[in-house]
Amino acid sequence: MPSELNSTLQTILVVDGDVITRTVIADYLRHCGYRVIEANSGEEAVEALQHEGFKVDVVLSDVSLPGRMSGFLLSQWVRQNKPGVDVVLSSVVERVAEAASDLCEEGPALAKPYDPKTVVDHINRLKVGKSSR
Amino acid sequence: MVLREAQQPDVLQQTVTVLLAEDEILIRIDVAEELRRAGWKVIEVASADDAIDILKSSVIVDLVVTDVNMPGQSNGLDLAGFVARERPKIKVAIMSAHFVPAAEPGGAAPCDLFISKPFLHSQLVDQLRPLLQRGTSSAE
Q1: What value of ipTM does the predicted structure carry?
Q2: Bigger pLDDT: A116 or B54?
Q3: Which end of chain A has fewer beta carbons closer than 10 Å to its terminal beta carbon, N or C?
Q4: Among partner residues B1, B6, B57, which is closest to A27 by beta-carbon distance?
Q5: B17-133: CATH class
Q6: Which domains are seen in chain A, by residue range?
């Protein structure tokens, strides 16, 4: 990650088709002091990245996404069209949480609000509640 | 964290959680940021189907703000109907450019508030606040 992440309010685009995972990860990053926008799919992510008002610095995306654009294709699109934007791809929730934690350590807040395991545990608890109701 | 579980005591229990269903991402981001600026927690979904999925989970929601026309099996009116049947304590606000509540049977939208698009996003919180003051929390 570039060191200038610390200098200004950075914007992270979280891309995940799973609402619970995306919402918990996005909120974690907000607690770390980032501006966070969320996209449900690769197509939505591209639309957000093309909007000049958002000025995304980092894309944190799941590999598997709803729609025709996977995380890999999104990453390719970013490299070709937004070369200054970093992309972090993850395929399982533990890796997503770790990636978010790494971003937090480089972020504007003084300390991480909670560790990645807490994030994963919270996501898993909510998903258990979702399937059992 | 944004998502609260019904069973869990949480320091955020007093915080309002809004479930925002809107398939236009640029509108959704803008509206979500406006709601967060008011200190509210926002769960963003791109379809009524995803919203219903969240409402079937243990996540606490106080208010649903939804568009009408969205991709998927259900639209915003179906979502409002689901809330009325299954989670009646949750308030519903519908925002739409095309839907006309007066044309509905009974002349009213199946919601607590109808917002005609386009609207000033900066005024949205003021429009929604009275709904929450009339009773919040879906913890059932």
Answers
A1: 0.85
A2: B54
A3: C
A4: B1
A5: alpha beta
A6: 8-132 (3.40.50.2300)
